[in-house]
């Protein structure tokens, strides 16, 4: 019975897809490559490769067979995969809003909400991005260092000290979630935060999935979890808006991203964000910050456990800062600005192991690229690692070399070749927040502990990159 339903759904969607997209592509010079089975196409094959952490090889085989531009079907839509710095400049991170727009997969769009930043274009994108960037700019973040310092110390005292072994990945997810909830959204420990995090893993599991909304699918479970989170956040907005109305002046400790966005709504109708835009972008930042930064910190500990030279250099940098502090004194913005080598280690970790595999755009008109036509309405798919591991851009690309990102070097990566945070007008607005969070966390881990891996592991993507065992490590606290 289920098989019959799936077959009927597939046939229906295929006919609709063909009527919508394929007719417009007729007689055009399409890129090479098969579209595959209707609706499904290469989706399941790519997802299998991601879980085996062989998606880069999967794409490299396509490049070897069809060249840097090829067509396929991914997650229900005809798709053109593009590769290279030229493609990144021309279509992926282009500012030409009339030609290319943000358009994530159906599953990602529905789970995050259709008014999140990765879906918006033109004036809407500038308006929402401007509001987020204004709050997350370095001038604002300077005031976060002390509170973030306290969150990290509290986390280590609760979950690390007194344990001989910890599993890093889930603990880093807990830490980054707590930091984001507390600092960005003013959601302190309690039922609201607990309810959100209970829905979170289910939401993330379905982000890259075939969008078949049947009760037994990952996609369906993720949609339900997203709906619950949105209801919780809408109530939170109402509560904060009411509190702001009752108080004549907002207290400094109550200021956060939500109150900032609500203030814009109250003061400037032209720049105001709708309730949906605020809620959907809170979800975006929660998922992006919770997943990507926690993965980065986890993988940095993995790198340092297996690379004594890198570990020693990071340790030296942080011991110098630690010795300059009074006992119990919190880090300052000036301290964080001295952690230059540690951030280069972070960037090199992101180059080799980007937490986000890739993303999608949509062609708003027929686009000419590399002698081929990308038809209007087709998806454009890009993957970060394709330029990160290109030996024409990065010499000996499989080697871990933090010096690649030393600004004093003459051979720094060319623009739009390192795209772990996106690029151009699409660069991640939370870049500086993620940097601060990473550096403060590494400082306290490396000055309070030494560690070694408890067992061998391998990396897998489902959908984000992660050690398959969560990175268990043996802890040795420093006296």
From TrEMBL:
Organism superkingdom: Eukaryota
Any single GO CC term annotated in Swiss-Prot or TrEMBL for this entry: membrane
CDD domains for this protein: CYP90-like
Location of this chain's protein in the cell: Membrane
PROSITE patterns in UniProt: CYTOCHROME_P450 (PS00086)
Residues binding heme, per UniProt: 428
Pfam families reported for this sequence: p450
Keyword vocabulary terms for this entry: Coiled coil, Heme, Iron, Membrane, Metal-binding, Monooxygenase, Oxidoreductase, Signal, Transmembrane, Transmembrane helix
Coiled coil: 227-257
UniProt keyword Iron present: yes
A single GO molecular function term of this UniProt record: heme binding
The protein's name: Taxadiene 5-alpha hydroxylase-like
Gene source species: Cucurbita maxima (Pumpkin)
């Amino acid at each position: 019975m289920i098989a019959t339903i799936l077959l009927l759904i597939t046939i229906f969607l295929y006919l609709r897809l063909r009527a919508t997209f394929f007719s417009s592509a007729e007689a055009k010079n399409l890129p090479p490559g098969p579209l595959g089975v209707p609706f499904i196409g290469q989706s399941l094959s790519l997802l299998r490769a991601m879980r085996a952490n062989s998606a880069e090889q999967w794409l490299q085989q396509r490049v070897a067979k069809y060249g840097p531009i090829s067509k396929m079907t991914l997650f229900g839509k005809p798709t053109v995969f593009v590769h290279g710095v030229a493609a990144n400049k021309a279509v992926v991170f282009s500012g030409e809003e009339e030609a290319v727009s943000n358009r994530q997969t159906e599953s990602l769009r529905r789970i995050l909400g259709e008014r999140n930043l990765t879906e918006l274009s033109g004036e809407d994108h500038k308006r929402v991005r401007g509001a987020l960037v204004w709050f997350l700019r370095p001038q604002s973040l300077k005031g976060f260092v002390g509170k973030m310092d306290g969150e990290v110390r509290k986390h280590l005292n609760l979950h690390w000290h007194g344990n001989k072994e910890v599993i890093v990945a889930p603990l880093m997810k807990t830490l980054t979630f707590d930091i984001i909830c507390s600092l960005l959204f003013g959601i302190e420990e309690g039922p609201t935060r607990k309810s959100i995090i209970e829905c979170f893993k289910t939401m993330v599991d379905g982000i890259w999935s075939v969008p078949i909304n049947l009760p037994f699918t990952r996609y369906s479970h993720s949609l339900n979890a997203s709906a619950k989170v949105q209801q919780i956040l809408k109530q939170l907005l109402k509560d904060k808006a009411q509190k702001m109305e009752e108080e004549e002046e907002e207290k400094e400790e109550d200021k956060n991203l939500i109150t900032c966005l609500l203030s814009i709504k109250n003061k400037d109708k032209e720049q105001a964000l709708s309730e949906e835009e605020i809620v959907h972008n809170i979800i975006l930042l929660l998922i992006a910050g919770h997943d990507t930064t926690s993965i980065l910190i986890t993988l940095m500990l993995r790198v340092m456990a297996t690379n004594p030279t890198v570990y020693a250099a990071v340790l030296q940098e942080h011991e110098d800062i630690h010795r300059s502090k009074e006992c119990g004194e919190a880090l300052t913005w000036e301290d964080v600005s001295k952690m230059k080598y540690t951030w280069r280690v972070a960037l090199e970790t992101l180059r080799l192991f980007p937490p986000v595999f890739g993303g999608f755009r949509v062609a708003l008109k027929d686009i000419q690229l590399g002698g081929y036509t990308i038809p209007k309405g087709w998806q454009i798919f890009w993957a970060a690692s394709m330029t990160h591991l290109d030996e024409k851009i990065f010499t000996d690309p499989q080697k871990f070399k933090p010096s690649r990102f030393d600004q004093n070097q003459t051979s720094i990566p060319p623009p739009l070749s390192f795209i772990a945070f996106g690029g151009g007008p699409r660069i991640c607005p939370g870049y500086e927040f993620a940097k601060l969070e990473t550096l403060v966390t590494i400082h306290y881990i490396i000055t309070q502990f030494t560690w070694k891996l408890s067992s061998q592991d391998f990396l897998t993507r489902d959908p984000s990159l992660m050690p398959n065992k969560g990175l268990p490590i043996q802890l040795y606290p420093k006296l």
